[in-house]
Specification:
2 domains, single chain, 26% strand, 338 residues, 6-stranded parallel β-sheet, Rossmann fold, Quinone Oxidoreductase, Chain A, domain 1, 10 helices, alpha/beta
Length: 338
C-alpha cells in the first residue's frame, strides 16, 4: 500500500506499507482527501522539541518514547474517506459511504490519537483505520475535499465558543493562517458583526475578507490596536512576544484567546493584564459536538471552505507540498489526494 511518511525530518513516499486490518469496533476506509496541517509542518521540523515538551508536561518518560523519531512516522489528521469494510462484529455504514471522523482510533490497547505515530496510519496513506462509533457520514452532495476541512474548522469554532464572543462585540484575529481563517469563519457564523483580521501577507488578508472578515489590517503599517478597540482578541500566530504585546495594548476588560501554538519559552508582564483585568483563555482542539457542527455548517453552505484550498498533491508530492507551505503568499491549505 502507498503512503507518505516522515523520515529524518522529511516526507518520503513509500509503496510497501502493509494494509491495516480492522479489529472489533474498527472500520477500514479508503482515504479520499487529507489536509496538511500546520502542526504537521511543525512536527516535521521540531519533532524532538514537541515530544520533549509533551514529556515535561506529563511528567512521564513513556510519553516521549511513544514516538520513535528514528523510525517512519505516519501523519495526516484532516481527512475524508469511504468505508471499505468493518472489523469483526462491528455495525457501521455500508461500504462506499463517505465519512469523516475525529482523528482518534479506539483500539484494544487504548486510545490512539491519529496525529503522528509509528504504527497508527493517518490520512497520508491510501487506507487507514477509523473507529466505528466516531464515524460521521458526509452529507449527500458535499465535496469530500471540503469535508476534509471539518477538523480545522472545528478548531476555530471551539476557540470562538470559548471566547464567548457576541454579535455586538468587535473581534480582532491576529494571524490569518488556516486556524485564523477558521476562527474568522466561526465568528461570522456566530453572527459577530465587526471582525477585524491582521496579517502581514496581502494574500492572506484578501482571503480573510473572503472568509468573513469585515476589515483587514497590515501590522507593518502599525499596530492593529492603533485603530481597533476589540473586546475579544484571538492570537493565532504562535510566536514569542505576541501575548505580551496584546496584554500591553489591549483595551481594559478585553478577553484574549490564545489559539496559536508557540513551542518556545515566552515572557509576559503580568502587570499589563492585571492592571486592565484582561481575561486569558488558552484553547486546544474541539469537542465532538463542535466537530459535528462544523461538518454540518460546511454541508449547509454556512461556511465556505473552498477558498482555503490552494493546492492538491498525490502521495508522491507530499514532501514538496510541505516545502511550498512555507510561503504564506502562495498557499493556505494543500490537500493530499491519495
Amino acid at each position: 500500500m502507498r503512503a507518505a511518511v516522515l523520515r529524518d525530518g522529511r516526507l518520503v513516499y513509500r509503496d510497501d506499507v502493509p494494509e491495516p486490518t480492522p479489529g472489533p469496533g474498527q472500520v477500514l476506509v479508503e482515504v479520499t482527501a487529507c489536509g496538511i496541517c500546520g502542526s504537521d509542518l511543525h512536527f516535521a521540523s521540531h519533532g524532538e522539541q514537541v515530544l520533549a515538551a509533551t514529556q515535561a508536561m506529563s511528567g512521564s518518560p513513556s510519553s516521549r518514547a511513544s514516538v520513535d523519531l528514528g523510525a517512519d512516522i505516519f501523519m495526516g489528521h484532516e481527512f475524508s474517506a469511504q468505508v471499505l469494510e468493518a472489523g469483526p462484529g462491528t455495525d457501521t455504514f455500508a461500504p462506499g459511504t463517505p465519512v469523516t471522523s475525529i482523528p482518534i482510533l479506539l483500539a484494544a490497547k487504548g486510545i490512539e490519537p491519529i496525529v503522528y505515530s509509528n504504527t497508527t496510519l493517518g490520512g497520508y496513506a491510501e487506507k487507514m483505520l477509523l473507529s466505528a462509533p466516531l464515524l460521521l457520514p458526509i452529507p449527500n452532495g458535499l465535496d469530500p475535499r471540503h469535508a476534509a476541512l471539518t477538523e480545522p474548522m472545528a478548531v476555530g469554532l471551539h476557540a470562538v465558543n470559548k471566547s464567548g464572543a457576541t454579535p455586538g462585540e468587535t473581534a480582532l484575529v491576529l494571524g490569518c493562517g488556516p486556524i485564523g481563517m477558521a476562527i474568522i469563519a466561526a465568528l461570522r457564523m456566530t453572527g459577530v458583526e465587526d471582525i477585524v483580521a491582521a496579517d502581514y501577507s496581502p494574500t492572506r488578508r484578501d482571503l480573510a475578507a473572503r472568509m468573513g472578515a469585515h476589515r483587514t489590517l497590515d501590522p507593518a503599517q502599525g499596530s492593529p490596536f492603533d485603530t481597533v478597540a476589540p473586546k475579544v482578541i484571538f492570537e493565532a500566530v504562535g510566536v514569542p512576544g505576541i501575548i505580551d504585546d496584546v496584554l500591553r495594548r489591549a483595551p481594559v476588560g478585553s478577553r484574549l484567546v490564545v489559539a496559536g501554538v508557540c513551542m518556545e519559552a515566552d515572557t509576559v508582564h503580568p502587570f499589563y493584564g492585571i492592571a486592565k483585568e484582561i481575561s486569558v483563555q488558552f484553547v486546544l482542539a474541539y469537542q465532538p459536538a463542535e466537530f459535528a457542527a462544523s461538518l454540518q455548517a460546511i454541508a449547509e453552505g454556512r461556511v465556505d471552505v473552498a477558498p482555503l484550498i490552494t493546492g492538491e498533491v498525490g502521495l508522491e508530492g507530499v514532501g514538496s507540498a510541505f516545502a511550498e507551505l512555507a510561503d504564506p503568499d502562495r498557499h493556505c491549505k494543500i490537500l493530499v489526494m491519495p
